[in-house]
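Section 5: illustrative case.
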């Protein structure tokens, strides 16, 4: 059993508004690849400086050496496809 569970939600981020996206879907236009992703509502992660502005808060997950963690990763977006469960074991190096 892990010492802790960490839940991560991954969602799509588009530069278009939800109204523009809805209109595209109603016209049968493919939404295409998201402009970025949010992790637990934070981001988007800056993969393209032309699309994603700087100065954005990102999700930080702190872990302690010697503990085990189960990461539960859930897709809550339209396009991003990642649903997994991971077990991470942390350790610390001696002096």
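Designed sequence:
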């Amino acid at each position: 059993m892990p010492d802790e569970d960490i839940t991560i939600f991954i969602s799509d981020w588009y530069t278009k508004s939800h109204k523009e996206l809805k209109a595209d879907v109603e016209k049968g236009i493919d939404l295409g690849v998201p402009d970025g992703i949010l992790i637990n509502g934070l981001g988007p992660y800056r993969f393209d400086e032309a699309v994603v502005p700087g100065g954005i808060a990102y999700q930080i997950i702190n872990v302690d050496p010697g503990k085990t963690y189960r990461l539960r990763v859930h897709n809550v977006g339209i396009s991003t496809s990642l649903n997994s469960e991971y077990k991470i074991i942390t350790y610390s190096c001696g002096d």
